[in-house]
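Section 3.1 - Work completed
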Amino acid sequence: MKFLKLAFGAICLLILASNVRTTSHWTEARGVWDDICYLRQAHLFQLYGIGGLDTDVSRDEDHFLQGKLKEIGFPEGAPAPCHPPAANGKYVMQYPPGTGLVLALFPQGRQVVLLYISVNLIVCGFALLAIFLARSLWPLVGAGVFGALAVYMMINPAKASYSIAPTMAICPLVGCLTAVWLIRAKNNVWLVLLIGLLLGLSVNLRLPNLLLVAGYVLFLGLSFLRSRTAATFVRGLALGLAFVVGMIPTLAANAINAGSPFATTYSPDDATAPTIDLNILNQYLHDMQFVLVLLAVGSTAWLLRTGQGGGRQVALVVSGNLLVNLIFFLSHPTFTPYYVVPIAMLSVWSVCFALIMQPAESAEPARLGEAIHV
């Protein structure tokens, strides 16, 4: 066991070193429109502080946006990308403010490099934590293999969007807290508050991260309907309130840019109704995301079948989350190489820590109704 832990730890550290070396040579002018918009948001925060929430395209007195577009050969005089018209007539950035705010923590010119190095360190740290917490062979092997994969993925597909990098750092933290809550501290409302807050904060990074809370809502809602106790009601209320508090930056940005906290800054093309498109499904089947989904579904099914007590409850939360998120993204009319990465990573991290934390001794399987009770 000790040798395996050291071996898996060394593999994760070697991948981390390779990632840091690769990331250190990245450029911020790779010709991607989204990149420029996230960097512009960061620039606004550095210039105006909280006033950077106002992303009106006219706020370019120092020609930062114009210069960045010129670097990638964007046609001069053309409408700025990712700044669709809002209902109030302003042209504003469509993305929530969280990714720009995180980038603003680092100095200009090295923002992307330092963001990815920081997140690589966080993800590797959680991989090492999972490896060295494992107390039996198979959870250790699972933690080692998945930990190495998670660190490797911080280059590809995480580089596809700056919003994925900080999301990838939140996933292991929430996954670990979920396992601690349901396996070791079921009555701890503070853990539920923290999970809700972190999931709310993740919405500021990517608006679709809103769906990452779905499994928790279903689990706590069913728990309350089954038990009808004040304790389960308080836990559900705590999750919901903390989630909304975490979303406050996005709600404020929507109010400033679109005229209402609940008005979208996205263009109509990004807010289309769900539809079944075989071409989209085929793209997922031939993408690495399909492997991640299989890993998430397979590991969750295994935990649901073999887990006990809190471990099985973790599997139920993850199952609900996977179901809602996969239905949404597989029916979304647009495909990207990272859409289902957050839900897949949150799911597998949750299962990984649950397998590590649940008692090693065998126990008689609980009935499904018993597993839902908290």
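Second construct:
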Amino acid sequence: MEILGQADRLPAHAPDGEEAAGAELERLRAQVAVLESERAALWWAIHHDDLTGLANRRLLNTVGPEMLRKAARYAVLVLDLDGFKPVNDRYGHAVGDAVLCTIGRRLSNLVDGLVVRLSGDEFAAILTEASLAGAHRDWTRLVGAISDAVAEPMTIDGNRLAVTASIGVTTGHCGPATMTELIRRADLAMYHAKTSRHRSYIAWDRQ
């Protein structure tokens, strides 16, 4: 009778082995989800610019070569802002940062490819055939549209501001050179554009 009395006092729905295993499985799933989220956040932080949210040089070197291998035609450009330092000096770094973010958004809106902040006020992009749509049926028109978009005035903290860009471009198709070599060529073309402002803001690599 005493044993029966103790049994009557046991919980009516005591968890059995199956319920305990299910609870443990849910706990492990939640833990895995947290770890995957942390890993994704770490990957993003390592491969992106923390100011503009654009890809950084590390991501360019990681995914750029594969993008080029898959592209029948491609263009790689390097873009350096002109007139940015006076804006930064006069209005402060907060306004300068807002200018960089604005330029980053404009580039991302135009480029169906990879847009990169290399450093400071220097950007790069990989353009593939997917970028050639609508009015931008060739590299010249697309790069011209990028130049125009950068130069469009912007208003930040009540200040009407404008910067322009010197752009260097190199193009290719099938069996591309290394990412480092393509950036080097585009960078040299960009410096040519910067020192030849009486002719064009854009220079094309002819190698």
